[in-house]
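Example 9 (inverse folding). The structure is encoded as follows.
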C-alpha cells in the first residue's frame, strides 16, 4: 500500500486508510542506510541506525522475504569482527516515473528501486495544453512499461517538475506564461487521477536539485545549492540530504535574488538570442548539450553579461547556507558551466590570513533530463527515504 501524506506540497494521488504506509518508520531507517550506501552489512546497519541487533535481523529477514532487499555474494570487511555478506536493495522491487513539463517539451524518466535511471526520453511539443501533455505522457508511460516489462503494481508513484512557483498553501502553482493552462489548477489531482498513481509536484529547479542529490554528483555532498540554468534561472537546496522546500514550496528561488533592471538573468534563452545575433542558429536549448561549441561567437558576450549575476548568487548562497558545494546544472552545457565556474568569485571576509571555509563550485554530472530524473526521485524520497 502507499502512504498518504496530507501536506499541500507532497500528497498522495488517491485516498487510503489512515496510518497506511508503504514501510514502517523503523523499516525506512534501514532502507535509508542501504539506499545511500548501496551495499552494507548487518552490523553496519545496527551501528548506523542504533536499532538493536535482534530487531535489525528480524526486519532484514522480513524485507528479504518481501523482495525489498537482497543479500549479495560479496563479503564486506568488518573492522570489529568477521566480514559479512553485503545487503543491497532489490532494483526490481519497485519503479518510479518522473515527468518534466517544460516550456516547449515534456520528458519522462524511470528509476528502479536503487535510484538508478533506467529510461529517459524527451519530446518537443508545440501544444503544452493539459490534455495534450497527458496524452503524450500516457503514450510514453505505456511504451516504456511494455518495453521494460514494468507491471503497474510495481510502480510506486509519479513525480512532476514544472516551471513556476507555488502561490499559496493549497499547492497550486503560478506557472510560466508559456504554461498558461497549468496555472492555478490542482496539478497533483489532475496527474494522479489520469495515471491513477500517487503524485508529487515541485517546481523544475527543485526537482533537478532532488535528482542531483540521488543520481548526480550531489550524492557526494550532504548540503549543496543547485543552480538551475535553463530557459529561466532558478535553483534548489539540499540540506542534510533532504530537499529544502520552505513554507510554500518555493525555497531556492535564486532568480529572485537578481533585480532584472540591475542584473542579467543567466539563462539559456539569453544565450540563444545572443548566438542568433552572431549568426549561430540554435533550434532548441536542449540541443546545446550535444552541439555546443565554446568558441562560438557570442559565448564570451553571454559570459560577460551574466558573470556578475553568478558572483552575487554564489556569494549569497555561501554566506546564508554555508553549503559544501554549489552545483551548476540544468540544461547548461558542461563546457559552458566550467567557464562560468572558472570566472565566478565568491566573496568572503579575509581575517587573520584566511577566509571562512568556502563551498566547492562543481558542474552537475546529469547530462540530460535533469527535471524528469529529479521528479522520479520524489516518490522515493517521500515513501522510502
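The amino acid assigned to each position is listed next.
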Amino acid at each position: 500500500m502507499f502512504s498518504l501524506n496530507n501536506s499541500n506540497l507532497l500528497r498522495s494521488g488517491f485516498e487510503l486508510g489512515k496510518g497506511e504506509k508503504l514501510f514502517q518508520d523503523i523499516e525506512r531507517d534501514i532502507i535509508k542506510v542501504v539506499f545511500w550506501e548501496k551495499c552494507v552489512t548487518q552490523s553496519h546497519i545496527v551501528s548506523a541506525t542504533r536499532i538493536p541487533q535482534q530487531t535489525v535481523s528480524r526486519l532484514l529477514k522480513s524485507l528479504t522475504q518481501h523482495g525489498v532487499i537482497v543479500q549479495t555474494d560479496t563479503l564486506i570487511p568488518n573492522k570489529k569482527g568477521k566480514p559479512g555478506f553485503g545487503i543491497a536493495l532489490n532494483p526490481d522491487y519497485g519503479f518510479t516515473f518522473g515527468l518534466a513539463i517544460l516550456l516547449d517539451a515534456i520528458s519522462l524518466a524511470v528509476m528502479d528501486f536503487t535510484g538508478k535511471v533506467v529510461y529517459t526520453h524527451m519530446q518537443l511539443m508545440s501544444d503544452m495544453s493539459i490534455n495534450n501533455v497527458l496524452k503524450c505522457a500516457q503514450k510514453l508511460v505505456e511504451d516504456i512499461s511494455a518495453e521494460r516489462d514494468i507491471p503497474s503494481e510495481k510502480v510506486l508513484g509519479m513525480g512532476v517538475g514544472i516551471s513556476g512557483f507555488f502561490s499559496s498553501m493549497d499547492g497550486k502553482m503560478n506557472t510560466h506564461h508559456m504554461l498558461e493552462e497549468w496555472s492555478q489548477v490542482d496539478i497533483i489531482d489532475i496527474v494522479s487521477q489520469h495515471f491513477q498513481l500517487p503524485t508529487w509536484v515541485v517546481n523544475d529547479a527543485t526537482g533537478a536539485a532532488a535528482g542531483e542529490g540521488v543520481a548526480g554528483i550531489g550524492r557526494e555532498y550532504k548540503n549543496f545549492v543547485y543552480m538551475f540554468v535553463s530557459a529561466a534561472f532558478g535553483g534548489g537546496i539540499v540540506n542534510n540530504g533532504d530537499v529544502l522546500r520552505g513554507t510554500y514550496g518555493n525555497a531556492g528561488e535564486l532568480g529572485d535574488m537578481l533585480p532584472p533592471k540591475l542584473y542579467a538573468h543567466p539563462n539559456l534563452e539569453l544565450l540563444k538570442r545572443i548566438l542568433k545575433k552572431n549568426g549561430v542558429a540554435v533550434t532548441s536549448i536542449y540541443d546545446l548539450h550535444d552541439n555546443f561549441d565554446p568558441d562560438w561567437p557570442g559565448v564570451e558576450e553571454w559570459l560577460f553579461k551574466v558573470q556578475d549575476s553568478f558572483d552575487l548568487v554564489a556569494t549569497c548562497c555561501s554566506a546564508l547556507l554555508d553549503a559544501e558545494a554549489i552545483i551548476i546544472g540544468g540544461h547548461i552545457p558542461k563546457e559552458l558551466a566550467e567557464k562560468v565556474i572558472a570566472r565566478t568569485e565568491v566573496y568572503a571576509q579575509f581575517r587573520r590570513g584566511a577566509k571562512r571555509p568556502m563551498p566547492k563550485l562543481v558542474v552537475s554530472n546529469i547530462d540530460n533530463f535533469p527535471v524528469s530524473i529529479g521528479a522520479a526521485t520524489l516518490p522515493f524520497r517521500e515513501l522510502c527515504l
